[in-house]
Amino acid sequence: MRKPIRTEQGANGAIRELEKFRQQGFTPEQVIRHSIANEYQGLFAPKGVRPETLLRQVNTVSLPDSAIPPGFRG
Question: What does the alpha-carbon distance between residue 44 and residue 47 come to, in Å, rounded to a whole number?
């Protein structure tokens, strides 16, 4: 496994890498879990996984139907 990050510069570099992957649609958690699971000595985006930005996103909420159904007895 990779040596622990010992410097502030190393930590900042890892954060910049995670931000790059976030812009590609991967969450930091996805990248970190993938990198640990595969025993990589660095941070790498998962392959064969769709980034979250490609998944369906809800942009609007539909308005409820205000019509009263026939036969309704409230």
Answer: 9
Would 52 be classed as within a structural domain?
no
**Considering the domain boundaries, does residue 8 fall inside one?**
yes
Interval 21-60: pLDDT, tens? 999 989 999 999 999 999 998 999 998 876 665 555 566 7
Number of domains in the chain: 1
CA distance 36 to 34: 6
The conformational region for residue 25 under phi > 0 = left, psi -120 to 50 = alpha, else beta, is left
Q: Of 48, 42, 39, nearest to 18 (Cα)?
A: 42
How far, in Å, CA of 1 to CA of 60, rounded? 44
